[in-house]
Write a structure and sequence with these properties.
single chain; alpha+beta; 4-stranded antiparallel sheet; two-stranded antiparallel ribbon; 48% helix; flat
Length: 242
C-alpha cells in the first residue's frame, strides 16, 4: 500500500456525487432510441427488473453510448504526482487538482513505493532525498523565489489531491486498463478503489467491470502479459468438465 511519511495515511477515494438513479437514466436513454413516447413516460413505465435486463443487454452488445449519460465524481487524496500524471491521460474526464502554485509545500507529504518501503537501505536513501528536497524548497522560498518557481524542485512522489469526474462508459474503459495486473501499482490501487465505490451505487452497470482477462477472457498485452489469462481459461475448462 502507498505510505505517507508525515501522517502514515493511505490513499483515500470517495464517491462524492453521481447521477441520481444512474442505471435507470442509462436504460431510459437506451429505450428512448427505439420508442415513440417521451423519456419521462418511459422512465415511469420501466420496472427495476426491466432496467436491469436492458442494461445487461446493452453492455453485452457493446452499445455503450447511452452509458455516457451517467457520471460519477470522486474525491481522491493520498496519491502521488506519478499517479495523476497517468490519470490525466484518460481524456474523457474532468479533473481539478490541488495547485502547487497556490498551496505552499514547505512540509509536503510524499508517497513511498512498496519496493522502496520494504528495502531498508533504499528507504533510507529515499527519505534522505525527500528531506533534501524539502530543505531546498524552503531555502528557495526564503531567498525570495516565488513558490510557483520553487515547486520545480519537488519530487514526483509529492502527495496531491484531485477531484475526478467520469461517465460510466469512460469508467468501464478505465477499469479495463487500470485494474489490469500490468498497470502501475498505484493507479491500479486507485482503479480498484474507484470500482468498489461505483458498485455501491450502480451494481448492474459495473457488475462485469475490470480487466479484459476477467470480463472478456482476452488480453491485449501480447508478450507483456502477466499470464493471468491462461490461469482463468484453465479454470473455465475445469468448470466445464465438472
Amino acid at each position: 500500500m502507498a505510505t505517507n511519511k508525515n501522517k502514515g495515511e493511505e490513499m483515500k477515494v470517495k464517491l462524492i456525487c453521481y447521477t441520481p438513479e444512474p442505471e435507470r437514466v442509462v436504460a431510459m436513454s437506451a429505450r428512448l432510441c427505439y420508442s415513440p413516447v417521451g423519456a419521462e413516460e418511459l422512465s415511469e413505465k420501466m420496472s427495476d427488473q426491466q432496467v436491469e435486463k436492458l442494461l445487461a443487454k446493452i453492455v453485452d452488445m457493446g452499445h455503450l453510448s447511452t452509458l455516457e449519460h451517467a457520471s460519477f465524481t470522486f474525491a481522491i487524496e493520498g496519491v502521488s504526482r506519478v499517479l495523476t500524471h497517468q490519470l490525466v491521460r484518460h481524456r474523457i474526464a474532468s479533473y481539478s487538482q490541488q495547485s502547487q502554485r497556490y498551496v505552499k509545500e514547505h512540509d509536503f507529504e510524499y508517497i513511498t513505493p512498496p519496493t522502496v518501503a520494504l528495502n531498508p537501505e533504499a528507504k533510507e536513501k529515499f527519505e534522505k532525498l525527500m528531506e533534501t528536497i524539502r530543505g531546498t524548497y524552503d531555502e528557495l522560498v526564503a531567498m525570495g523565489v516565488h513558490q510557483e518557481d520553487a515547486r520545480y524542485c519537488l519530487a514526483n512522489a509529492t502527495e496531491t489531491k484531485i477531484a475526478v469526474t467520469m461517465n460510466a462508459r469512460s469508467l468501464l474503459h478505465f477499469f479495463e486498463l487500470r485494474c489490469c495486473f500490468r498497470a502501475q501499482w498505484e493507479i491500479r490501487q486507485l482503479a480498484d478503489a474507484m470500482l468498489q465505490e461505483v458498485r455501491k451505487v450502480s451494481p448492474v452497470l459495473f457488475k462485469n467491470a475490470g480487466p479484459t482477462c476477467e470480463t472478456q477472457r482476452y488480453c491485449g498485452e501480447g508478450d507483456l502479459t502477466c499470464g493471468r489469462l491462461a490461469g482463468l481459461l484453465k479454470k473455465d475448462e475445469i468448470q466445464r468438465l465438472k
